[in-house]
Structures are given as structure tokens and as C-alpha cells.
Design brief:
Blueprint: E1 6-7, E2 45-53, E3 59-70, E4 73-79, H1 83-91, E5 93-98, H2 102-109, E6 124-126, E7 133-135, E8 140-152, E9 155-167, H3 177-195, H4 202-222, H5 227-245
Antiparallel strand pairs: 1-8, 2-3, 2-5, 3-4, 4-9, 5-8, 6-7, 8-9
């Protein structure tokens, strides 16, 4: 039950293949590095996409904030009844996907934007060291096993052991403010949707909508006719529909 703290002996869950990179190492076309070389710092929250395996073996993925506790341990905070929480409770394994592709954040957060309302299976590949899928186009992935799941109210804190880190070389990319603002808007929109039918949350939902509207104006100014403006336009339309139904 999620009402109890769950402890797992992760060493016995699966054997790490010979030749796998152990915690805090990174393999990237022959280069090795530590988690901190990917930008992780203790205590900070990093926006990632966490992928897990559903009971039927199909892939599940959703944007999640991740904290680094130390170079071998990460933590997540999930809603108790989310698919990610249920999948981790069932098989104790997942993958943290690092990506700069904002569209992946959007389509994993709002799965109804995909064909048939499902994540395309071709987006994923199976990892070698964990029975969980990873995003094919991720810039880096962190395979993890669950050490402990501790429910606190409607949420569960998940403590994760890093099992393997992989990354691919890529060219440095120029920075556009639209990317960060669109990601923030996606995160805020998930809360607007959750608050739509909660009378006590309407003031907070209104403030979030105003913030998203401000982001929308900036995105349209700094990145017109881009994937960011298309995502923002879709978000604004969704928010209008959610508010109308509330």
C-alpha cells in the first residue's frame, strides 16, 4: 500500500550487466564524467522527463522535477495515483531523460495531443540495465532503481539510486528565452488543469493563467512562428476550455 513507506533491496532487483557504467559515471562516445558534469547540483530542481514501463509493457513518460541528493542518489515527488508512481511501485525501475526538446515535454505532459491520445512507441527504446524504456531522442539518460517510496499526503517522495548514466555528444546550442518560458508555461498549465474543478484553487489558477498569458506574449515576440508559439497557442486554447468547464 502507498500508505506505508516501501523499502526495496535494489541490489537484488536486477544484475547490472558487465561493462555497464556504475553510478556517477557517464559514457558519451568514449568520454566519462560525473552527474555534476551534466549540470546537476545538490538541492536544485531540474526539469526532466521520467519514463517507466506500464503493467502491459507499454512505455509511460511524464515531465518530472528531479533533485540530486548526492552523486549516486536522486529524488522525485509524485502524485500517489500517477502512472509514474504506480509503475515505480510495481517494478522499482525507471529512466530520467534529459532533453532540450520542449515539444517532448509538452506531448508527455498532455498525452491527448498525440495520435490516439497515446505516446508513440517509436519514441522509446529499451535500456540495457533496466526494464524501463528511455526516450530515443534524449540528450542523456539516467537509469535508476527505487530505494524508498514514502507517501506524504497526496504525494509520494521517491528516493532513487543511479544505476547508469549515458549521454551523446552534441553541438552547443544558442539560447532563446522562449524555450524556458514555454517549459514554465507547460508546468503551470498542468496545475491550471488540476485546479479547474477545485473552487478553493480558482484564485491560484487565475494567477497562473495570467503568468502564462504574459509568457505567451514574450514567446510570440522573441520566437515568432516557432514550435514554441505553436505550443503556447495550444496551451492558451486548452486553458480557455478548462476554465469554461469549471
Amino acid at each position: 500500500m502507498l500508505g506505508k513507506t516501501l523499502l526495496f533491496d535494489c541490489e537484488n532487483l536486477h544484475s547490472v550487466e558487465k561493462g555497464c557504467i556504475r553510478p556517477s559515471n557517464l559514457e558519451a562516445d568514449g568520454l566519462t564524467a560525473k552527474l555534476i558534469d551534466l549540470g546537476f547540483m545538490q538541492g536544485a530542481i531540474y526539469e526532466t522527463i521520467v519514463s517507466t514501463a506500464n503493467p502491459d509493457g507499454s512505455p509511460n513518460a511524464a515531465p518530472m522535477g528531479v533533485r540530486m541528493q548526492d552523486e549516486q542518489t536522486l529524488s522525485l515527488t509524485l502524485f500517489n495515483l500517477s502512472n509514474t508512481a504506480l509503475n515505480l511501485k510495481a517494478n522499482h525501475l525507471g529512466v530520467i531523460n534529459l532533453t532540450n526538446n520542449i515539444e517532448l515535454f509538452y506531448k508527455t505532459a498532455f498525452k491527448e495531443t498525440n495520435p490516439d491520445g497515446k505516446l508513440p512507441s517509436q519514441w522509446f527504446i529499451k535500456t540495457k540495465s533496466a526494464a524501463a524504456p528511455k526516450l530515443r531522442d534524449a540528450d542523456a539518460t539516467v537509469d535508476f532503481s527505487v530505494i524508498k517510496m514514502e507517501p506524504i499526503g497526496e504525494k509520494t517522495t521517491v528516493l532513487c539510486r543511479v544505476e547508469q548514466v549515458n549521454a551523446s555528444k552534441s553541438y552547443p546550442k544558442v539560447y532563446c528565452r522562449a524555450k524556458a518560458l514555454t517549459l514554465e508555461a507547460i508546468i503551470h498549465a498542468t496545475r491550471v488543469q488540476a485546479f479547474a474543478n477545485e473552487p478553493s484553487k480558482q484564485a491560484e489558477a487565475k494567477k497562473l493563467k495570467e503568468t502564462i498569458t504574459n509568457y505567451n506574449d514574450i514567446v510570440n515576440r522573441v520566437a515568432p512562428n516557432s514550435v514554441y508559439t505553436r505550443i503556447m497557442a495550444d496551451l492558451m486554447q486548452k486553458i480557455t476550455l478548462w476554465r469554461a468547464k469549471s
